[in-house]
Amino acid sequence: MDRTGRCVNFGNCTIANQKQTIVMPSGLELKCPECGRSLVEVTASRSGSRGPIAAVVITFLLLGAAAVLLWRNMRSGDRERAPESDVTASPGSATPSGQAKAMLRLSGSNTIGEQLGPALAEAFFKSQGARDVKTTRGSAESIQVTGDGKVITIEARGTSTAFKDLASGKADIGMASRPAKAEESTTATGDLSLPAAEHVVGLDGVAVIVNRNNPVETLSKDQLGKIFAGETTDWGKAGGTSGAITIYARDAKSGTYDTFKSLVLGARDLASGAQRFEDSSQLADRVAGDPSGIGFVGLPYVRSAKALAISDKGSRALTPNRLTVATEDYLLSRRLFLYTPSSAAASQDVNRFIEFALSKDGQDVVERTGFISQHVRAEKAPQNPVSSTSPPEYKKVTDSAERLSLDYRFKPGATALDNKAVVDLDRLVTFLSDLHYTGDDLLLLGFADATGDPAANERLSKERANAVSEQIARRGVKPGMVIGFGQAMPVADNGTEEGRQRNRRVEVWVKKRKG
Fold this sequence. Notes:
The chain is of the alpha/beta class.
């Protein structure tokens, strides 16, 4: 029986970039005929039947690719004939108690490494046919996952360590809960902003939490900054019951702290009296038990505390939930990244792991661990109701439509889609195909920041929506409606570059199904 797959080696393979679906004849390994990477298997309903002619064509392509790969292997010498478990291991990477060297070494964010990293490693081993899969925790930061004698190590000591370990060769994959900074790209890693290096594995919202008995429900970004900088010390000045405020915060190595400092504190320092935690669960439990407490954690770690709605200048308050985080409208939403060096070809094990993490099965794992997956959904529940201040035309076109759980955003200062948006194009087309939507059902609504002339911003917002429309049309779906709403409905402060970047977006809606 034929098998169907897609290549996700974006930026390095024409078949991947063009989102082509490959049908493999029975008995042949599911690999890309151009770049040789393993394909992500998809169901027949996504791709349709290509028939025997396509199978014959693919067979010839595979034979040619196999000949090229064989020639390369013959030239590469004994280095390529090393055992598979040693391919990605460096000297000194042997695990304790005489176990095999690590086939993969993950390092970085403890937001990812505490639960999501081990869960992905376990599921990855099982997807490769391993039966004896288990996780061993040497400490909260040092974890091993084994499967049929192979080992994946996870060192979760903060996002900043991801880039240091990638540069020094101590890690094969870096886990990060913020984007790599320009200075973190080195000669050894190459440019980490390239699609071949930067992989969005899921989304998270930094939740601001308080005790459930605290009467405060909403805080502005400005109020948050003053509280966590120690400028506001009494709850009575923040809309609550009078009493001292106790601050709980993540440690300085944490990507969660980096995100919070960047988005909330800015140039201000965290209050000197703040209690710091390496473990998000411990922090949340302390806040939940302290009526005077306030802290911040990743969305899966809210536990028994209460998450507040957060607002910014000119935007309405939103609580972190599946829709507001997936669309990145929530002010403190963030992307979770897996980084691989772009300066050299990744090993087969690295490629397979990244492919799995981005696949449907991998995204199911992201969801099971409490983060926000990149599965596309039509949100029927009013989690993000249309504001009463929305433009009349916006209300009209969305009244009979449902919001999809993704927005398209762009590279800073450009009209080109960012790395996540490029991958999301294929996810959207697959969603439409699987649920039998047509292009006529699809609505693309563009927005701009408030810099400059309003009429020019309206044109820019339409151009952004058109840019997405053109990319989707290349994949066989012509959107039924493309509208630009200019600088209306900001989701962040237009007075900051971070806010302006968030406001430059394209929302995606589909018409409601009748019945």
